[in-house]
Structures are given as structure tokens and as C-alpha cells.
Amino acid sequence: MFLVLIFLWLACSDMPGVLGRIPPSQRKFSSPAIEAVISTMTSRLKDPSLAHLFENCFPNCLDTTVASYKVDNNVPDTFVITGDIDATWLRDTTNQVLPYLPYAQQDPKLKSMLCGIIIRQSNDVLHDPFANAFNFGDSGAGHPDDQRKPKMTPHVFEGKYELDSLVAVLKLSYGYYNWTRDTSCFALEGTKWLESVKLIISTVSRMQAGTKEDGASPPYLFQRTTQVATDTLGLQGRGVAARRCGLSKCMFRPSDDSTSLPFLIPANAMTAVELEHVAEILEIPGLPFSDPETAKEARSLAGTIRAAIKRYAVLENSVFGKKIYAYEVDGSGGAVFMDDANIPSLLALPYLGYTTKTDPVYQHTREFLLSDLNPFFFSGTAAEGIGGPHEGEFYIWPMSILMRALTSDDDKEILNCLEMLKSTHAGTFFMHESFFMDDASKFTRPWFAWANSLFGELLLYLCNV
Questions:
Q1: Which residues are 323's β-sheet partners?
Q2: Which three-class secondary structure string do you get for the chain?
Q3: What integer pLDDT is reported at residue 6 of this predicted model?
Q4: Rounded to an integer, what distance in angstroms lies between the CA atom of residue 187 and that of residue 193?
Q5: Pairing of strands 323-325, 377-379
Q6: Taking the model in full, what pTM does it have?
Q7: Main-chain phi, psi angles of 23, to 5 degrees
């Protein structure tokens, strides 16, 4: 890591004078604490490309996606859109604001804004724990014609059940508490936050059931009229058959594509970690939301999931010849060996806190994922990295390059990732959703706040700021 720091502080490159950050008068939300971080980083980064990328990417969520922030009777409410889609995704919103958490204690307004997200997410979960995206109000925007159980409502933008979206609510709550030690946010609306936590736990538990156990009345069904196979579920909306094994079903991936097998391992790994984290909050004595029994339930469920991952998802790949983590399993011996760029991913397991970078199974998995054996690892003249079915063959997601750097201790590998990120933004100085492996000027979604936040997080991590 020392060599990486030397590179960041001393490197120099040729770069046209392009700045993409919108002017102060047009910014949705401004934080003095975040501006101070930007000033510190851009003054210390001697590579102008990296400095400009950081200046644009790190504040992009605040600049452009905080669509609404207000405080009513001391209760904040914040609505954060994903970027070029005017709706909030639970998972995206959490990841968009994660890099700001370490600075919340320095800025009361930033802290309040983040608390407002927690409150809104809790209310969204209580409205529909199986939905992944929500409207600001009850506009009916999105996909109201989807055939679904529970039924779509005007408040739900998209009703795909993604385990990691649900658990992202716990992740933000714990991150907020971990950095601020503020517990008052969880009681500003009485018991609603605790009720949402209980509903998340019960939903994760309910979705452990096998398909035959669900019988004629499963808790979740989803069908969409579409020409995109990964935008709907088979078996009359049930999805692929599952056998109870301790894991919790996840019908759609963090890319919003349907799963090939019902137990998504990265999402289950994230769930185990965040159940343990929320238990820490619930175990704090003497507070309105203190709940030792729910904490005990969360820890027990996390333990069951961890044991099931070890038993059903650590498998020997017959081609690779080593034991690695499977991406998806069905509880009956079926497994999918691959990775998708979206987080949670197998590549991100140490980042998620599930395992360590040096874990032998993870190291073997990483070797597999960053090779041609992973059907969604692409290597071209512009860069190499992981993509996924969402944008199709030969499109690399910068998110995978960012995560590769965040989970590496190899200076050479990290520097290579930085060089790829510098050379594939197509002159925009923002991260994109994906780009063609041989031509980065062919990219998707020029406004994708999650990837921008993750770029800022990477540089802050490497620079130890």
C-alpha cells in the first residue's frame, strides 16, 4: 500500500482541463465537511486525472441526487434518487452515502440528512418489504402493471425482491451508528425503526422456506410482460425451485436481474454480517428500541446463514479444481459459478465484512472470478473487469474494477486498477455503469451516482483520509 500512496501523491499525467462538477448554485445539498475533504484530497493528489475524478465523483450524490431534504417537527426526511432514474433504490441509496458517514459527526446538517434517509428507508420497508425501489410519494411511477404478490402500490416504483436491498437498510443504520454513536435517530418516529428491523428479520426468515413448503400460497410472486428474460420470474412467478437449507431466497440480483438459482450467496453473506451488526444496536441497554430478544433472533439467524454458506456454497469447481464460493445455489446440489459486478458480489466478500482478504477459499474464488472461467469476466484493449447479464457480453462495469482495488493488498494490482479507471471515463471524469471492453467511449448511464461514490471511497481508503 505504501507504493500506492507514493503514486497517488507524486504521480503526474497529461489531462485536458475538463471539470464536470455542477456549479454551487445548482447543487442539491452541500456539506462543509465534505467540501473540506475534497479540498484536502485535490491539493494532495498530484495526478490531475485522479484529482479531477475525485472532485467530480465523491460529492456527486450530494450534488445531484438528494432530491428532497426537509425537517418537520425535528424529524428529518430525505429522498435520494439513483441518478438518471427519478426513484430511490434501497441498496443504491445506502451505497451512495456510505462514504459520507465518517464525516457526519463534523457536520450537523449532513448528519441530519443521513438520519432522514434511515427514517425514509424504515417507512419504505414497512410499506413493502419485498420492493426494491420507491417513489417520493404515491405517484404510481415505475412498473405499476407488474403482476405481483404483494400487489403493487402507487408508492412502489419497482417490486423486485432483492435480499440485499432489504439488508442495505440495516447496513446504513449500523454505519450511521458506528460513525456517530447517535441512537436518537432510531427513536424519532417512535417504534417505526424497530418495527422495520423486526419486519426485515421476519422476511429473511420467511424466505428460507423451500418451494414445496410455500405450497399454494408463497409470500412473493412476480411476473412482468417483457422481452427480457431476466426481468421476470418463471414457474408462474415463483422463480426457480428451492430446497430449505438455512439460506434465504433472493429472487433478483443487485443488478435487478433475476437469479438463476434462488439462494444468492453474496446477498446471504451480507445478510449474516448486517444481522450481527443490527444486533449490536438492539443490545444497547436502556434505550426505547432496546430489544434483547430480537437481537438474539438476529444473531441466531445470522449463524444459521453462515453455517449454510459453509455447507452448501463452498464447493469444488470441477474445471478450476479448487474449492471456491458459488455465486448461487438451490439447496439440492445445484450451483452457479460466476460473479456479477454489482455489490454484493463474491469479489466484495471482504469489503462486506464476511471474510478476510487472506481467506484461502476467498483467494481461490478471486482467482476464478478474475479469469476466463468466470463467464462475465471480460478483457479487452480498453480494460479488463467483471460485467454481468444486465448490460450483456463484453461490457465491463467500473464498479468491478473499484472493488478489485478495494479488496487487494497487491500494489501492482491496485495501480493497474487506478490506471484503468483513469483511462475509461471517456473524457467525462465520472464513473459510468459500464463500458465496452475495447472502446470506453461506448458506455451506459453517464449519471450513475453509486459508482461515483465508490470511486471516492476507494481513493479515501487508499489515501487513508
A1: 316
A2: CHHHHHHHHHCCCCCCCCCCCCCHHHCCCCCHHHHHHHHHHHHHCCCHHHHHHHHHHCCHHHHHCEEEEEEECCEEEEEECCECCCCEEHHHHHHHHHHHHHHHHHCHHHHHHHHHHHHHHHHHHHHCCCCCEECCCCCCCCCCCCEEECCCCCCEEECCCCHHHHHHHHHHHHHHHHHHCCCHHHHCCCCHHHHHHHHHHHHHHHCCCCHHHHCCCCCCEEECCCCCHHHCCHHHHCCCCCCCCCCCCCCECCCCCECCCCEEHHHHHHHHHHHHHHHHHHCCCCCCCCCHHHHHHHHHHHHHHHHHHHHHCEEECCCCCCEEECCEECCCCCEECCCCCCCCCCCCHHHHCCCCCCCHHHHHHHHHHCCCCCCCEEECCCCEEECECCCECCEECHHHHHHHHHCCCCHHHHHHHHHHHHHCCCCCCCCCCEEECCEEEEEECCCEHHHHHHHHHHHHHHHCC
A3: 47
A4: 7
A5: unpaired
A6: 0.95
A7: -65, 155
Q: What is the pLDDT of residues 415-443, one digit of tens each?
A: 999 999 999 999 999 999 999 999 999 99
Quote the CA–CA distance of 37 and 44 in Å, as a whole number: 11
* Tens digit of each residue's pLDDT (9 = 90 or more) over 13-53: 433 334 579 999 999 999 999 999 999 999 999 999 999 99
